[in-house]
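Exam review. A common question shows you a sequence with its structure tokens and asks you to describe the fold in words. Practice with the pair below. Do the first one on your own.
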Amino acid sequence: MGESPLKLGHPPVIPPHFTKALATHASMIQVSTSVGEASKQNMISLSGALTDGTEWSRKFTDEYAWWHAQPDHPELLIPHKGKDHEDRRT
């Protein structure tokens, strides 16, 4: 019997480097004392600012991008889920 070909599925709507940039920025805001907290509202507005004027503008909602950044990069947003010491250090 032959093997079935790999199914690639639907390509991702949000590029992975974008969600990583959003998660990294959120962790930097948490450490910074002058900016305050990386709240949902702050991160949604940041998502809009990151995509404004690019090819990704209006391809997805800002809330959808923040919703994807959380499970895609837990090592950046939740330090105890980091894989090693370098992931936990912010």
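Now try the second one, then compare your answer with the model answer below.
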Amino acid sequence: MEREKEQWRELNQVNPDGLIARCGRPAQEKKGLSAYPENDSFHRGLYEQRSLGYKGGSGKLAVFVFARPLGDQGNWVFDHIGTGSSGDPHGNLQQLKDASLSCFDLSK
């Protein structure tokens, strides 16, 4: 359990530029706009989303998704991880481990 917390901490500290520096050019990159869910009492309006997909040794695509408020030129924040072309918002560490990314090895 403690190791999983450490892995999540490591994952939450990564940003798109750091991920590219660590893993190289992504196999897939997407940028777009999304709206916060209406039931989100903390956030309002639109936000930018940036997804970077990397193919691992298993052949699976691991997608790292980052977000920031629309118009904010500040830092991207890690949002979620998933597999597949869009990144499943319910992704978890196991999906990242299953992708077998050598640059982001969580199997230890």
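Model answer, second protein: The mean pLDDT is 80. The first strand starts at residue 28 and ends at 35. Full marks require stating both points clearly.
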